Amino acid sequence: MEPTQTIEAVAAQARTWAELDDAARARLIRACAASLHAVREDWVAAACRTKGVRPNSNLAGEEWIAGVAVSLRALRIYAEVLEGKRRADQLPLSQSPSGRTRVQTFPYDFVEGLLMPGLRIEVELNKAAEATHEVRKAAPGGLALVLGAGNIDSILVFDLLDQLLRHKRVVVLKFNPVNAAIRASMQRAFAPLIELGFLALVEGGSAVGEELSVHPRVDAVHLTGSNASFDAMVWGGSEKESLRRRKAKEPRVMGEVSAELGAVTPVLVVPGPWSNADIRNQAQQVAAMAAHNASNNCNAAKLVVTARGWPQRGAFLKALRKALAALPARASWYPGSRARWEEFRTRYEQGEEIASKQVDAVADGAAEILPWLFIPNVPLRRTELACRKEAFSPVLAEAAISAKSPEEFLSRVIGPVNEEVFGTLSCAIISPPHTPKEMLDQAIDRLEYGTLCVNTWPGLAFGLGASSWGAYPGHTLADAGSGIGHVHEAFMLDDVRRSIVRGPFRPSRRQAFDPGHRRLRSLGRSWANWEAKPSLLRLARLAIPAAFG
User: Fold this and answer.
1) Are 304 and 271 in contact (CB under 8 A)?
2) How far lies 341's CA from each of 209, 262, 317, 359, 375, in Å?
3) Vertex 249, ends 246 and 253: CA angle to 5°?
4) CA 462 to CA 467: how far, in whole Å?
5) Which of 502, 489, 428 has its CA nearest to residue 123?
6) pLDDT of residue 20
């Protein structure tokens, strides 16, 4: 069936889907989870082929976690919300320094607290503090076209579930050609929805996406990708058409448009008297934030911001170089990775190439292995390539501001990060216990990002389904920035502004997103099994690799 015919066929089921009750939707979502778990091996194998990773290597655990386990978790917790087993009206409330309501969505129960000790997620609403956490009740329905990302498979799952369940729309999902290899597995996994006509999967390049986005039966379009792809879809592929449409304020797409478009993700390192172990462990965590998925993530750490007057700055940067070198080597599989890497290498003479000697995870015939390019002492201003362009390749830059104490750093870093660094998607803050709590809270309140993470990577928030995911509010079709709207938040709260995630400065175990985790594949497989059907036995099997990473 041609893609345009597919649109017509799925649109015909929009009213039927909109009239289903929550219990019926939950049964279909549960059926999809069972089907996905059944095809998990094939799914991971296909993803590993795309990324040049040996499927039996430890590094394949990334695909088990970021692809299969996270997708199963999304299906499970959405189903629990629909079934009334997770209730938004039972979530604790707090207040931001500026007086907005914050709803604690993680941990929801004792087991979640056990699995992620010390982690807390709050979804911040636009509502004043006296407001309650209302769940979105009215939804427009219709048909949504989801233009899927090519880097992380679970993005597709989160995006289609958000349209199906929060917006109550039937969905046509178009794969990015980069990850089309998982289509067969997704077709089988989501057969319960596909067979009833509520969901369809199509393939094709950007031209197909641009054609389908203006189909008269499409009520909404959601895109995860680049600003260039967004502008071509909304304003036209040629410069002449784009200028004409922008001037006339006549976008190509007439339906509702939402998008997640990436950013240069900063990591703010609060100075102070750190122990040697703190320096080593946090350098390892920042390296992991940068290296996950070969650094082909919209939330990958790309700009480390330090205090120039911090006596331990040199020791931290030395530990960071060492941590990058210790990580497994990766195939630079995403299209254009070499060209972007070369652009940064040419621009910065001070760039340092850091190679890894661990190449055992790279499959035969995979794309070339690029060394890490670490770029210290980059000026913190928008004109700098490292501040304005998302590399999507193994590049990590560092910028320092004039500060020595936590108070100086937090008072001086917020403005430049908000104003000089491209994007508003996510930001991480490494904050030791001696940081004054009130000052840290005020800094968080002033930072203009859709997801703010203290002592952990924004990618962790991305995968748990307990936080919203999207740009800081305020972007428009004419100036899309990091995107418009949000996805992921399974409680489907109303009037969401952003999310705040806090983790311990000294975690009790190595993070699951760390490519250097020694039991990553075992952890990923056990996590997928747990999400498919939680039980005490599966919890015990998950706890063992989690504790000994």
Assistant:
1) no
2) 28, 17, 21, 20, 12
3) 90
4) 7
5) 489
6) 97
For residue 146, CA distances in Å to 134, 484, 544 come to: 26, 14, 38
Q: Which residue, among 476, 424, 468, has the nearest Cα to 158 in the 3D structure?
A: 468
Q: What is the CATH number of domain 3-84+136-225+227-260?
A: 3.40.605.10
* Distance between CA atoms of residues 309 and 312, nearest Å: 9
For the chain, list residues with pLDDT below 50.
Answer: 129-131, 138
Q: Domain locations in the chain?
A: 3-84+136-225+227-260, 265-448
What sign does the CA torsion over 228, 231, 234, 239 have? negative
Give the dihedral sign, CA 383/389/394/399: positive
- 70-82 and 153-161 are packed helices; what angle lies between their axes, rounded to 10 degrees? 10
The tokens 């914050």 sit on which residue?
Answer: 102
Rounded Cα–Cα distance for residues 109 and 79 (Å): 16
Q: How many CB atoms lie within 10 A of CB 59?
A: 25
- 41 Cβ contact partners less than 8 Å away, ≥ 6 residues apart: none
- What value, to the nearest 5°, has the Cα angle with vertex 165 and ends 162 and 169? 90
The residues with which 147 forms a beta bridge, in sequence order, are 174, 223
* Neighbour-count burial of 128, counting CB atoms closer than 10 A to its CB (0-12 exposed, 13-18 middle, 19+ buried): exposed
The per-residue pLDDT for 131 is 46
Count how many Cα atoms sit within 13 Å of the Cα of residue 190 in the half-sphere of its side chain. 27
Cβ contacts of 169 within 8 Å, gap of 6 or more: 14, 17, 139, 140, 141, 142, 143, 144, 163, 219, 220
Q: Report the CATH number of the 265-448 domain.
A: 3.40.309.10
- Angle (nearest 5°) at CA 100 between 94 and 106: 45
The torsion angles phi and psi of 220, rounded to 5 degrees, stand at: -155, 150
- Rounded Cα distance, 37 and 58, in Å: 20
C-alpha 481 chain-centroid distance: 16
How many CA atoms lie within 13 Å of 277's alpha carbon, on the beta-carbon side?
A: 4
Length of the chain (residues): 549
Going by their DSSP bridges, the two strands 120-128 and 100-106 should be labelled as antiparallel
One DSSP character per residue, 436-474 reads -HHHHHHHHHH---SEEEESS-HHHHHHHSSS-BSPPTT
Residue 299 Cα distances to 222, 326, 418, angstroms = 18, 21, 16
Three-state DSSP class for residue 305: strand
| pLDDT computed for residue 358 by the predictor | 83
- Residues 543 and 314: their CA atoms lie apart, in Å, by 36
38 sits in which H/E element: helix 22-38
The enclosing H or E element of 497 equals strand 496-502
State the DSSP string of 237-287.
SSHHHHHHHHHHT--S--SEEEEE----EEEEE--S---HHHHHHHHHHHH
